[in-house]
Amino acid sequence: MITLKTLDRQYVNGSVRKSHGREIQVVTSAITGEQIAEGVLGDATDANEAVEAAKRALPAWSATTLDQRRAYLQKLADSFDAHREDMIAGLVEEFGTTTATAGYIVSQSRDWFVFAQKLLTEETFTERIGRATVRKVPVGVAVLITPWNGAGWFIAMKASVALAAGCTVVVKPSERGFWQAQAVLDAFADAGLPDGVVNVVFGKGDPVGNVLTTHPDVAKVSITGSTATGKIIAHNGVDTMKRVTLELGGKSPTVILDDADVSRAVPFAVQAGLFNNGQACIAGTRILVPASRAEEFRQALAEAVGALKVGDPRDPDTVVGPVLDRDQYDRVQHYIRTGIEQGGEVLAGGLGHPDGLEGGNYVRPTLLTATNDRTIAQEEIFGPVIAVITYADEDEAVAIANDSPYGLHAYVATGDTGRGVALARRLQAGRVMVNEIVDAPDAPFGGFKQSGLGREFDRFGLAAYLETQAVFS
């Protein structure tokens, strides 16, 4: 009989302690589909005590000098680095991302704390305008709600700038990322920050999320998650006028223009669509191809997707690993089935597990034809499923790309970079990448329309945790 590991830890007021809540969350392996642990979820008591600890710590933390904050941010970077291997292992086992991708996620998680140190300059916080001294002051206690598709990356990205701004924080990782967030909790606990500056509480939206997002002592909430959840959080914060940053869903288009080189455009589009096994809010899951070259691009895309190695994410040759859990697998199968039932042609992949991978949550990377009014072209799937849509001319391509409730990200493939940049200006998306996928942690990140409110990353993210005060003298 296998003894399951029990994950019964919260990090509150500088100490790792048992959860006050008793509800059990089943934790499974994406690789095998089997249960690997049981998590004990926090409750309203855990959430309230975390906020109280952050409130008590706020005056002293917000009064730290910039040099002191830089030193603490470096301690966090070092602690994340010390827990690197555990973080990678957790991502691969629970989330199913490949070891290479997990390594990238963990490296950048550490680097967020290094990047944040560079923002700590006097000019960031004080400016003279006429007779006024304009000061940027921390907004207060910040609640950070993060998703399961790379827990450490999102936690570090948000916490680094919140702490740099002088806020204290309460982190609520997704309960579906229980396993991978354990090493993140340990990294915070080992970093040596003052008690209460960082708190980590595991729990569901009800009750923990609701307590945190309605609490009168919380001034700021930042979430990365679904649009539906983001709307609930925005409503929860209205009574106390909480500041909110909402990074929500996406249904990003990849527009392949008629002058694009197939050998460059297709790998670009496939990478954009299937990064992190398609479990990414920025995934380019609508590929728009010109009618004049539709057959050429469809065939090349089908060959590229069909050739991807699906398998154990610990295998260095694997490109696409499993999805998170059985619920996610069933969700993806539902969308593939719906795409077929609505008239889509399967160009690659299809229903069911890949041959030889019937165990675990493996999905066949799937390419389906569609029109933009179809379900698979309008709803976020969060798995390795791409819709191919044909357009007549550039104006129609723009119209199709913008015909979505979302506007988080977009991609353009073209033989003329200038033309691609001109097209990008017409797209309703917070970020547009032309011909290459760029790692840009210093540029603003966030969405148009129902993809959210506000911007994250670098000084744009820092600003979200600051209030502006003008003093006249």
TrEMBL record:
Q: Which UniProt keywords apply?
A: Oxidoreductase
Asked if Oxidoreductase is a keyword of the record, the answer is yes
The Aldehyde dehydrogenase domain covers which part of the protein? Answer: 19-471
Q: Which Gene3D superfamilies match?
A: Aldehyde Dehydrogenase, Chain A, domain 1, Aldehyde Dehydrogenase, Chain A, domain 2
Which reaction is the catalytic activity of this chain? an aldehyde + NAD(+) + H2O = a carboxylate + NADH + 2 H(+)
Active site residues of this protein:
247
Q: Which GO terms describe its molecular function?
A: aldehyde dehydrogenase (NAD+) activity
InterPro entries referenced in this protein's UniProt entry, alphabetically: Ald_DH/histidinol_DH, Ald_DH_C, Ald_DH_CS_CYS, Ald_DH_CS_GLU, Ald_DH_N, Aldehyde_DH_dom
Q: Coiled-coil ranges per the record? A: none
Cited SUPFAM superfamilies: ALDH-like
The top EC class, named as a word, is oxidoreductase
* EC number annotated for this UniProt entry: 1.2.1.3
Q: Which family does it belong to?
A: Belongs to the aldehyde dehydrogenase family.
Please give the name of this protein.
Answer: aldehyde dehydrogenase (NAD(+))
Q: What is the lineage of its organism?
A: Bacteria, Bacillati, Actinomycetota, Actinomycetes, Kitasatosporales
